[in-house]
Amino acid sequence: MTDLDTHYPVVVIGGGQAGLAMSAQLIKQGIDHVVLEKNTIAHSWKTQRWDAFCLVTPNWQCRLPGFPYVGGDPHGFMLRDEIVSYIEDFARHIDAPVHEGVAVTRLGPSGRGFMLETTAGEIAADRVVLAVSGYHIPKVLPFADRLDASIVQIHSSAYRNADQLPPGEILVVGSGQSGCQIAEDLHLAGRKVHLAVGSAPRCPRFYRGRDAVDWLDDLGQYDLPVDKHSLKEGVRRNANHYLTGRDGGRDIDLRKFALEGMKLYGRLKDGRGTSLQLGDDLQVNLDNADKVYNGICRLIDDHIAKNRIAAPVTPHYEPVWSPTSVPTELDLAASGITSIIWTTGFRSDWSWVDLPMFDGTGYPTHKRGITSVDGVYVVGLPWLYTWGSGRFVGIGRDTEFVADHITERLNASPVDLRQAGRSEVSQFAASGAM
Question: Which residues of the chain are modeled with pLDDT < 50?
């Protein structure tokens, strides 16, 4: 699609699963809109995932609106190319009005609506939905540019397979989902891996006869609203639990990797040249990850006992290895390390959004995707409303809620809009979101 109008009732920015789910809900409500995607549909899935990447949640959790997974392996884990196909098939199924290759360079106010400056010209909109996630710019530690030029450095988003890296040993920095899975990918390829371990928690893959995700879904964990979580909005900063769907799914046990020759360290703190400084927190980080793992097991145990469910007994995790010493320095050259993979996440870039809708940390102020700027919405962010919000399983509910709000506002009278606006400002103030 190439021809764009100069005005739309709603513009959705982003053509990933969140933007497409939003489009599906707007189509269902009969609301004219357009989806602007600066690259291509499912771009990040195509270009920022390694060759062996697969989902960590089972296929049955893929529930885009009106388009659930219907394949023959609901308890399996789709590979990268299958995920891309699922999203592209969804776009075709709903006949989404997506314009690929159109980047929004500025979003600002204009009269009673908004003006979008794009690479295809200016577009006016009454309502705008930002479906661009919060993962915009690959992040590395600040001292990366002080390391010796002989060390090859790549971000996890650029990693594809072990063969793209030069001969030698490899340091993976970060033990979140991507870090642990990439470390495993390299380990299985026969490469010597060093892993700087952070504070990410871990989760069992299978426990008491079922995938732990199945149990957690029964427990309503993916439906838990952020305001009911013990950490409240603070949970949005938490790292995801690490496990894998590879080869049918399994735990990721860093202690087992250590027994098999992987070198584990504490958190990477600083570096210059070929010398790195590390924390002495390896034991603590491993113990805390295992504590979360066994806490999930106990949660499932309690659910089974309370509901008198027949399920096989599975022992809780017992450490198979513990560090006898924790080095706080590492010389890359002496250790034979020739490459570093930074699995240290992304930072957000909302600089193109010229609207007063962000808190002191640069995070959009919102309640269930309705931002503090009337007429602007966000979808697809982790813990937007529930744990499921950043996943295929929760995006349908979030976008339906936003679509209902948009429909209500587009059909409201000016008096109703003023009253609703005052009410929402009061709600934001009361919640501390403003």
Answer: 1, 425, 434
Phi, psi torsion values for 118, nearest 5 degrees: -130, 170
Reported as a single tens digit per residue, the pLDDT across 402-417 is 999 999 999 876 655 5
Contact 125, 111 (CB under 8 A): no
**385 vs 395: CA distance, rounded Å:** 10
**What is the per-residue pLDDT for 3?**
87
Helix (H) or strand (E) holding 359: none
**Nearest residue to 335 (alpha-carbon basis) of 200, 195, 215:** 195
* Tokens 């046990």 sit on residue: 253
3-class SS of residue 249:
coil
CB-count exposure of residue 269 (10 Å: 0-12, 13-18, 19+): middle
Phi then psi for residue 248, to 5 deg, are 95, -5
Question: How many other C-beta atoms are found inside a 10 Å radius of the C-beta of residue 150?
Answer: 11
CA-to-CA distance for 358 and 350, rounded, in angstroms? 9
Q: Is the pTM of this model over 0.85?
A: yes
Question: What pLDDT is stored for residue 390 in this prediction?
Answer: 87
